[in-house]
Amino acid sequence: MQPPEPRSRPGTASTHMDSASRQLTAALNSDQKHETALLEVEHLESGYDETRVLWDISLEVHRGELVALVGANGAGKSTLLATLSGLLPAWIGHVRFAGYDITHRRAEEIVRLGLSHVPQGRRLFSALTVEENLLLGAYTRRAGSQQAIKQELEEVYTLLPKLRERRRQLAGSLSGGEQQMCAIGRGLMSHPELLLIDELSLGLAPQVVDDLLSALDAIHREKGLSLLLVEQDVQIALERADRAYVIENGHIVLEGTGSALLQNERVRTAYLGA
Amino acid sequence: MLIVQVIVNWLLLGSLYAAVALGFSLVWGIMNIVNLAHGAFILVGAYAAYWAFTQLHIDPFLGLPLTMLLLFCLGWIVQYVAINRVIRAPFLMTFLLTFGLDLLIADVVQLLFTSDRRSINTAYSGFGLTLGTLHIPFDRLLAALIAVLLTAALSLFLQRTRTGNAILATGMDRDAARLMGIRIDRIYALTFGLGAALAGAAGAMLVELYPFDPSQGGVFTLRAFVIVVLGGLGTPWGALAGGLVFGLAETVVPLLPGIGPGYDDAIAFALMVLVLIIRPRGILGKAFYA
Ligand SMILES: Nc1ncnc2c1ncn2[C@@H]1O[C@H](COP(=O)(O)OP(=O)(O)O)[C@@H](O)[C@H]1O
Ligand SMILES: [Mg+2]
């Protein structure tokens, strides 16, 4: 299928050069047996109608990594995730995932490739039951994979046992923490390679956040699931992340390992109140 | 005995009205489109059934699946060609577009069938169950049963099947549905097709019961609107509840002293205004659907 033409924006002149040099690097990398990143974002810009929100965003998530994306309210974190998962069109730049150029693919296709997005505010189908929500998460699985879907459901229930108890309840009737569990479980049902989670801890009690994080930790370790975690609680995020990016006003201003950023002066004054 | 007859008439009429509003409710609830061409789809269903009966001698009830299939295809095409373009546009745009469609379809029907009143007389027209003074016409009974059956079938389809759940999910949160991998353009085409098919079923049953002419589409759009407002969006059962309330008004009001028959449209309007004042969300209405 032919991807739609990118919307013309000023400043696109360099992209052809880029793609040529990228192919070269890709070839070199494969020669040297370097793993290319699972998710590669290069010079990405996007926004809403005429308002640009993201400027020249470049980042990577490698297989098996937990990467955090932190930044103040309105910095553009949710906009970035929406552009990655195809809900918003990219204006300029490239997004590659698992070897596919997904820059101009639709959300419906991207999730099939193994990139699953748990949006901010859970966005559950509130008048459907927990189990119906989870099964919609497996919508990409074709008919005939009933067995695989059942097994996936079992795994999600094992990982998040609260969901099994609540399986027949309407998703809208759950507590905030349970809703977040349901949203994450739903995101896992498509059997993703990379899970994007937007504001995991927002509005949840610390105990609930701990439970969720250790559940994620378990699949992260055991299944090698890669994670891109958006968090307003910078401390929580940086403690757990292999690497992290700091985003301000739509620009990536800092990147580094989680522990390095925890020590960073700028991070400490701006986000940790130190 | 009169009171029993009134109750029976009410139940038969009310159930039939569920069929009139079912497709309208589905399209409104899932796609957030008030489809002003709904009555035109009913019209096409009625004339398709009329044509099949007079030309091919197919009984309107037996031919129901065919009528529904025809209208499903019509609805699917209309959605893909026209509605898709305004699905995210302001309400007024969808109003204009579906209103234009309504005019277009009604004109085509009139061109093909002239503006003469048409009716169908089957071999069993006028027959029914008689218990003492109580009379239940077969065709009305059958139409009411089919209407209830369609309501139940739609409800089961939406609640119990993967595709049905995808339709509900798309209605509740379009972007979240896309994140599940649901192709919402297909879901919308399917939903609009189903809405048209249900309108077609209503039309085929109506033409069996009442004389029909091409000017009546708008009347049924209005009724569907009032019924959905009465019953609330959110579930097919809302259409049945709204249909029964609406049917009650149309059955009882003409019996009131000093009023008499002939005020059906006035009743519809008055009810709508009343409900909008008292319960803006209808009787069974849930908030999520719209
Ligand atoms: N639907 C929208 N339409 C227009 N502007 C939006 C929309 N959503 C967010 N924005 C704007 O984009 C900017 C980034 O928002 P967002 O990505 O939600 O930030 P974050 O997730 O980091 O809090 C903000 O200035 C916000 O006002
Ligand atoms: Mg956000």
Architecture overview:
The complex is a heterodimer of chains A (274) and B (290). Chain A is α/β, with parallel strands linked by helices and 274 residues long. In chain A, 39% of the residues lie in helices and 23% in strands. Chain A has eleven helices and ten strands. In chain A, strands 6-7-8-3-9-10 form a six-stranded mixed β-sheet, sandwiched between helices. In chain A, strands 2-1-4-5 form a four-stranded antiparallel β-sheet, with helices on one face. In chain B, strands 1-2 form a two-stranded antiparallel ribbon. In chain B, helix 2 (38-56) crosses helix 3 (64-81). Classes of the chains: A alpha/beta (274), B mainly alpha (290). At the A-B interface, helix 3 and helix 4 of A face helix 6 and helix 7 of B. The site of magnesium ion has 5 residues of chain A, from helix 2. Adenosine-5'-diphosphate binds at residues 48, 51, 53, 71, 73-79 of chain A.
From the alpha carbons, calculate the radius of gyration of chain B and give it in angstroms: 19 Å
Q: Any idea what the shape of chain A is?
A: globular
Largest sheet of chain A: 6 strands, mixed
> Termini distance of chain B?
43 Å
Distance between the termini of chain A: 51 Å
User: DSSP strand (E) fraction of chain B?
Assistant: under 5%
Tell me the major beta sheet of chain B: 2 strands, antiparallel
Structural class of chain A: alpha/beta
Q: Within the largest sheet of chain A, what's the order of strands? A: 6-7-8-3-9-10
CATH class of the largest domain in chain A: Alpha Beta
Total individual domains of chain B = 1
* The CATH H-level homologous superfamily of the largest domain in chain A: P-loop containing nucleotide triphosphate hydrolases
Strand arrangement in the largest pleated sheet of chain B: 1-2
- Give the SSE order of chain B as H and E letters: HHHHEEHHHHHHH
